[in-house]
Design brief:
By secondary structure, the protein is of the alpha+beta class. It has one domain: Pnp Oxidase, Chain A (Roll). Helix content is 23%, strand content 37%. It contains four helices and eight strands. Strands 1, 2, 3, 4, 5, 6, 7 and 8 form an eight-stranded mixed sheet that branches. The radius of gyration is 19 Å and the shape is globular. The termini are far apart.
Length: 180
């Protein structure tokens, strides 16, 4: 028997890039922290929690960081990264792949700056060690479950002996790597 994750209903993804951006933006909105995965020089993967800076997703994600952290060298050595967003309360899970670059633009840093950042950067937005990581999203995959419908489907599958058929679950792949 296949697992419930393999039985989720495939949702028809939006056909145009703007529709896919809107879908992905809706899925990650309000999930402030992503697990940000880079490739280390030996080929192993490393993940760490990072706060997404932009509230309105437009195909690019931004992260504030210190230019002296190891992830900067990891990105410079291998620009492909993955971001994982999870909202367990709504049973929504999103995996995002893209290309990362380092941006030291002071105006852009100021755009994302908030007083909460002083915890990590006490010298403020003009700290010369502050940089942004820009991730241009190529693709994403998501799993979005209506918990009540899913629970009903699981109970129905158990009672009938037919197993869970994926009721209430959506799964789709999005491709944003078209024209930018």
């Amino acid at each position: 028997m296949s697992s419930p994750a393999n039985q989720t209903a495939a949702k028809q993804e939006p056909q145009d890039r703007e529709g896919q951006i809107a879908t992905l933006g809706k899925l990650i909105k309000g999930v402030d922290i992503a697990m940000f995965t880079t490739e280390m020089p030996d080929g192993s993967l490393r993940s760490r929690p990072m706060a997404t800076q932009n509230e309105d997703f437009d195909g690019t994600l931004w992260f504030l960081t210190d230019k002296t952290t190891p992830k900067i060298g990891e990105i410079e050595g291998h620009t492909q990264v993955n971001l994982s967003y999870a909202n367990p309360s709504s049973s929504t899970y999103v995996s995002v792949s893209g290309r990362a670059s380092i941006v030291a633009d002071r105006d852009k840093i100021a755009q994302f700056w908030s007083e909460a950042h002083k915890v990590w950067f006490p010298d403020g937005p003009n700290d010369p060690d502050i940089v942004l990581i820009k991730v241009e999203v190529d693709q994403a995959e998501y799993w979005d479950n209506n918990q009540l419908v899913t629970l009903f489907g699981m109970a129905k599958g158990y009672v009938t002996g037919e197993g869970y058929q994926g009721e209430g679950a959506e799964h789709a792949k999005l491709s944003l790597s078209g024209q930018r």
